[in-house]
Each structure stands twice: as C-alpha cells, then as structure tokens.
Amino acid sequence: MKKTKSVQPGAPALEKGLDLLEALSAEARGLSQKQLAERVGRSVGEIFRMLVALERRGYVTRDPATGEYTLTLKLFRIASQFPPAERLLKAALPVMEQLAGRVRLSCHLTVLHGEQFMVIARIEPEWLMGWSVKVGAVFPLTQQYASAKVLAAFQLEGRREELAEVIAANDRISGKKALAALDRISAEGGNFSNDDGYTRILAYSCPIVEASGRAVAALTVPLVREGRISAGEAATIATELRAAAKIVSEKIGGVP
User: Using CA atoms, how far apart are residues 165 and 173, in angstroms rounded to an integer?
Assistant: First the structure.
C-alpha cells in the first residue's frame, strides 16, 4: 500500500502570492516590481516568479510601457456571486443596528476611496436629535475625521506610509507627525481620543479588519447628541463599539 504523504502546515508560496494580491488590491494605480517588493517585505528576486505565475493565470497584468502591475478582474469574477461590498454590508448592518440602539447614537461605516474615504452605510438611533452623515459622501483623509485616521492607521506598512503622507499634506504637518498619530491609534485599537487639536467632530472609531490585519472599513460613532455625554457613558460607548467592530471583523473572516 502506498503511504499517504502527510500535509505539512504552512504554504509559503501561497502566502507570497496572496501578499502580492492584497498589496495590489490596496492600490488605485499600478506598482512596479520594486514597489511591490517593498510593500510585502521581500526582495525583487523573491517575488519575480510569483508575478510571472499570477500574470500567466490572469490575476495580474503588466503594463509593457511602465512595467507596473495591476490586478485584473479575475478575482472579481470569482467573487461575483458574493461581492465583497455586499458581504461587508451584510455582516455589518445588523451589528450596526444593535450598536445604535445600545449607545443611542448614530453610527456609520466608511471605506477608503483612493486618497479619500467614503460613507457606505449609516444607522440612525431612535432618538430625538443627533448627528449623521450621508451615505455616498466622500471626505478627504485628514486628522479632522476619526474614520480617516483609523482607515490609514490599519493598513499594510507601505500603504500606511502613503496615506500618512496624504494626511500630512492635507493637514500641513510633517509626515513624521502624521505617522506618530497613526501609531497611537493602532496601539489603542482605534480612535478613542479627541484632544489632538485636529478632530472637528468628536467621534470614536474602530477598524473592521480582514485576515491580514488590514482595515477594509472603519465603524464610527459620532459623540454628538442633544444632551451632554458623560465620561462614564463615553467609556461604555467605546466598549460597545469595540465589541461591534470585533463581531463584524470575525464575520468577514478577519482577525478576532
């Protein structure tokens, strides 16, 4: 009888390919081999054969003029029966409804949109007065918005640095200062401080993360209501928001 070969844990080649696909998915424009290598923390030689294989299988395409790689629509076709945005909304909306009811405040879900961010969902509480944003609204990446800071803070390293530079330019501060602010947010697991001198609307925000740890969205609660929100209630809101973001992340297969 032929002995069955045991399957060893780990698949370095597969992980390398997925790293490349995830890096390209975070870019609005194409990336060169050198840029891709920097994004995934590998050498150009390490990723060369993988890029050739991905191009041969139709997952990426290379611009002959610039040498830059971009994703094709093949992954979209594979996932067309369950589009990512619909999957995210299906996971998030019930949780957002429960969150809004518990904290008696509105909440909204945002995603990166190039060098800006967009509101893709909003839930209103049963409350007389409050503050909310319009679904489809697009805002610049700036420290004025909690969602912007969270979306930028929880990205893969190369993309994170790029977004920090965008924030720095918009806020007219140094890239170093912008990165330091993102470091504080990632260390805290979200935006729970409004004393940075930049935030226009007081808000708490948490990342919705996929398996790589990259934020695919930010779940945000503006702390604006007719009556004053006490420190004790604000702490409760933060706890509820963290729990809600964790549930949504788990639903989409992200890091618990």
Answer: 9
Higher pLDDT, 1 or 104: 104
Do residues 61 and 72 touch, judged by C-beta distance below 8 A? yes
Q: What are phi and psi of 85, to 5 degrees?
A: -65, -40
Rounded Cα–Cα distance for residues 102 and 120 (Å): 21
**Global confidence as pTM:** 0.67
CB 148 within 8 A of CB 117: yes
Q: Exposed (0-12), middle (13-18) or buried (19+): which is 84, by Cβ within 10 Å?
A: middle
Task: Report the sign of the C-alpha dihedral through residues 49, 210, 154, 123, in that order.
Answer: positive
For residues 226 and 66, which has the higher predicted lDDT (pLDDT)?
66
Residues 6 or more apart from 233 whose CB is under 8 A from it? Answer: none
- Rounded Cα gap, residues 27 and 21, in angstroms: 10
User: Coil, strand, or helix at residue 70?
Assistant: strand
Residue 26 in contact with residue 155, Cβ under 8 Å? yes
Q: pLDDT band at residue 57, thresholds of 50, 70 and 90?
A: very high
Whether 14 contacts 147, CB under 8 Å: no
Q: How far apart, in Å, are the Cα atoms of 133 and each of 137, 138, 144, 164, 183?
A: 7, 10, 15, 24, 27
